[in-house]
Specification:
By secondary structure, the protein is α+β, with helices and mostly antiparallel strands. The chain has helices at 10-17, 21-29, 46-55, 58-66, 76-82, 86-97, 108-115, 122-131; strands at 7-8, 36-38, 41-45, 105-107, 135-138, 141-144.
């Protein structure tokens, strides 16, 4: 919720992190750190700072090396944060849909397992797939629809 979020200017955050303000500003402008431009100033939400620090943590790198992931790390939250809106949602659905092989039949458990790699609300995504006519359900099994063409 916005009213519970603390925002930093680039100067405030640079001071807090003991960084050069110009280096931090370049990271914000490049999109490495999520921020909002208000007038000529950037405002950086505290959660964006935490996310950026976590993504650059040497502990995270060690964990990722210890537990290699076989799938992409793009999540619904990541995509929604990058570009909000319905069109963006369709890109997320198509990104996940690409993980399903055409012609193959999947149990509901298998569908949930694939979706849960990207979004914890696999039931909602599964229903969206059917509603958007991306997957079809026949006799309790799911199959990627051959007539649905991925746009990206």
């Amino acid at each position: 919720m916005i009213r519970d979020t603390e925002f930093f200017t680039t100067a405030e955050l640079a001071e807090k992190l003991k960084m050069n303000v110009q280096v931090l500003t370049r990271k914000v402008q490049a999109g490495e750190i999520e921020a909002y431009k208000i007038g000529k100033e950037w405002r950086i939400p505290e959660q964006a700072v935490a996310n950026w620090l976590e993504s650059n943590s040497n502990q995270r790198s060690a964990t990722m090396r210890a537990e290699p992931q076989s799938h992409a790390t793009m999540t619904a939250e990541t995509i929604d944060r990058l570009v909000p809106g319905r069109n963006n949602r369709k890109h997320l659905l198509e990104y996940i849909l690409a993980q399903f092989e055409p012609q193959r039949r999947y149990s509901e458990h298998e569908v949930n397992s694939i979706i849960s790699r990207y979004d914890p609300d696999f039931g909602k995504i599964r229903r969206e797939f059917v509603d958007e006519r991306m997957l079809e359900r026949v006799n309790g099994q799911y199959r990627r629809r051959l007539d649905y063409k991925l746009t990206g």
